[in-house]
Amino acid sequence: MVLDAFDLFKHNLHLSPVTSEALEKLGERCRLDDRTNVLDAACGKGGTLLTLAKRFGCTVTGMESRPEFAEEARRRALFEDLAHLVNVLDGDPGSLPFDDGFFDTALLLAPPRPFDSEEALPELSRVVRPGGWLVLSELVWRPGASAKASDAVREWLGRSAPAEILEMEGRRARFQAAGFPVESAEMSGKTAWEGYLAPQAHAILENRKEHRESAEALATLDAWQEELEIYHRHGGREALDYALFLLRRP
Fold first, then answer.
1. What's the Cα-to-Cα distance from 223 to each of 4, 64, 113, rounded to whole Å?
2. In the beta sheet, which residues pair with residue 40?
3. Pairwise CA distance, residues 143 & 155, whole Å
4. Cβ(62)–Cβ(46) under 8 Å?
5. Does pTM surpass 0.85?
6. What pLDDT shows up at residue 177?
């Protein structure tokens, strides 16, 4: 039995350590309303799309590279009676099929792994009107934590991706240097992390019961469990956080 990310995230609304409350706060800062056109460039199962459409009545478009996640986002929009506001397209955030300046606001909420959000800026900002808003998020070091991180955390980061991890203020400075004024930068905090990881722990337990006869499935579940333990038992909680940045499009 082969398990993949869809099985891991089956109980998650958001596929990163953000909360609906944090997204609504950002929406208020961006002054979203029923005339606003919003893009989520990597929408996953549509959690952000649904949160913003429901709260602000804005038109939201999602891009998602995994067909099964895109289909789940569409299903959720229908179930929530939001399909008239939500449009989900299959595609990659690195090549957006929209005209320049098409959106008022664009979001790219990266998974909590090493990710260089500056690389995404040119294409993401291209589709936002001048003076519009960009919301980007990524994994960051807690202040002063990089020098004290455990070997387990460093090994996990090295396996995950080659991108450099910065502290939140370091990434803020990079955005500013690239010509994008940073209106706000905030850590997501432990509550958001628990809201992200707890549903995964639930999914792992369910899958262990269902697939206890499959060595292949159990090996996958062990790998997923190890990632959760990096955060809870091996120093991830003390070393890492997830930052959300609100930028102005020049």
1. 11, 24, 15
2. 62, 107
3. 20
4. yes
5. yes
6. 96
Q: Are the C-beta atoms of residues 18 and 109 closer than 8 Å to each other?
A: yes
> 88: closest CA among 67, 103, 111?
67
Strand, coil or helix: 183: strand
In what helix (H) or strand (E) does residue 174 lie, and over which residues does it extend? Answer: helix 168-177
**Pairing between strand 128-141 and 240-248?**
antiparallel
> What are the tokens at 200?
């995964």
User: Which stretches of the chain score pLDDT less than 50?
Assistant: none
Closest listed residue to residue 247, CA positions, set 122, 143, 162, 139 = 122
Cα–chain center distance at 118: 15
- pLDDT tens-digit readout, 44-66: 999 999 999 999 999 999 999 99
Joined tokens for residue 174 = 């990079």
Max distance between CA atoms of the chain, in angstroms, equals 56
